Model the fold of this input.
Amino acid sequence: MRTYRLMIRIIQLSIVMTAIVIVMGYFDILHVGQLSFSFENYLHVQNNDGNITNPGTDSDNTAEKPSTNPDDGTAANNDGTNTKIVCLGDSFTYGYPGEPSASWPQRVGDVLKIEVINAGKTYQNASDLLNRFDQDVTAQKPGKVVIFAGVGDAIRGTSLADYQNSIKALVEKAKANDMVPVLALPIPYKDTDVLYKQYREWEVAYAQENKITVLDFKNVLFDSEDHMLSQYTDNGTYPNKAGYQAMGDYAATVLK
Done:
């Protein structure tokens, strides 16, 4: 009899334990469901318009994305997609004594398959380039601007200090308008040795200090004694068509 009662008690106890396990399981499931619902609510926020948006998507992260407005040109410059280049300079940029169609900027555009604007004019110095920067460069909204001065300044006897001020102002204008400045170093010209060397020495140091890319056409056009190579000139002073083509081929390797 005692054995029978003991078995009854064991069975009863098993039933109670089973019921407890079932009840606890039910509450665990309910609790997890509530947590899941709360987490989903946490992931969704209500915007000012009353619409529900998910912060994990792109819909409310637009503030972190750069502007892609094609009218302002800013974003294109900053993210490197603006490949347009303006070449600002004197006769050696214009392509004198030939035409701009045979100039080195034209050659750069042809080689790189991008838009390159020749903003070279004859009889120019660095101050002249600065005076027309807004009209001839800023208005074009390029990603890069090549600044090529020195010969006109040396011919006119521009002091090193004045030359420095103009070049610095040109670089500052470029940066202020989200353009990458590139400096083309001064090249030799007859009877300007003293100033040309002063300009060149300073500009090399300035470019290095400010991490500015440079173009050195002297290494393309001139020999070790600062004489223009005969195959690249017809008069010993200005490049011929072959000379400008060589300048353009070299510049394309630097500007690509």
Residues 2-59 form one domain. Strands lie at 45-46, 52-53, 85-89, 116-120, 144-148, 180-184, 213-215. Residues 26-78 have pLDDT under 50 and may be disordered.
